[in-house]
Amino acid sequence: MRYTLLIYTNEADRPQWGTPAGDAEAKGYNDFHGEITQRGVLRGGEPLQRVADATSVQVRNGDTQINDGPAVQSPEQLGGWYLLECDDLDQALELAAKIPGASYGTIEVRPVLELS
């Protein structure tokens, strides 16, 4: 079964790249990527630009509304995602707990709705 692991963190809490903490986090993500690749479960994933670069689009009554910023204002922002092919939810949860962002944010694990 495929699962999407959505990484939500508060950008203000994220270690800055180029600092010892940021370098440790980058290594953690590289290690995680290596593990899920080696285990053969990785199907996709990407980090996202900061929320300040987001643009939201809504269509209401035929009118398109475009706004700078994320669709939802919240203390945590979507920072990236992984798509994994796991045996079951337990395996997906085990892997989600290894994502470095889980130590200061939230990893949302959602099964993919298979349409076929």
Written description of the protein model:
- The two termini are 13 Å apart.
- The protein contains two helices and six strands.
- A hairpin with a 2-residue loop joins strand 3 and strand 4.
- It is α+β, with helices and mostly antiparallel strands and 116 residues long.
- The chain is flat.
- It is 23% helix and 35% strand.
- The chain has a single domain, classed as Alpha-Beta Plaits (2-Layer Sandwich), CATH 3.30.70.
- The strands form two sheets. The chain has a four-stranded antiparallel sheet, with helices on one face. It has a two-stranded antiparallel sheet with strand order 3-4.
CATH architecture type: 2-Layer Sandwich
Q: Enumerate how many helices there are, as a single number.
A: 2
How many domain regions? 1
Structural class: alpha+beta
- What strand line-up does the widest sheet have? 2-5-1-6
Terminal residue distance? 13 Å
Spell out the helices and strands N to C: EHEEEEHE
Number of E-type strands = 6
In quaternary terms, these chains amount to: single chain
The shape is flat
The residue ranges in which pLDDT falls below 50 over 5 or more consecutive positions are none
Q: What portion of the residues fall into strands of 2 or more residues?
A: 35-45%
Give the CATH topology.
Alpha-Beta Plaits
- The CATH superfamily title: Dimeric alpha+beta barrel
Give Rg in angstroms: 16 Å
Residue share in helices?
10-25%
**Largest sheet composition:** 4 strands, antiparallel
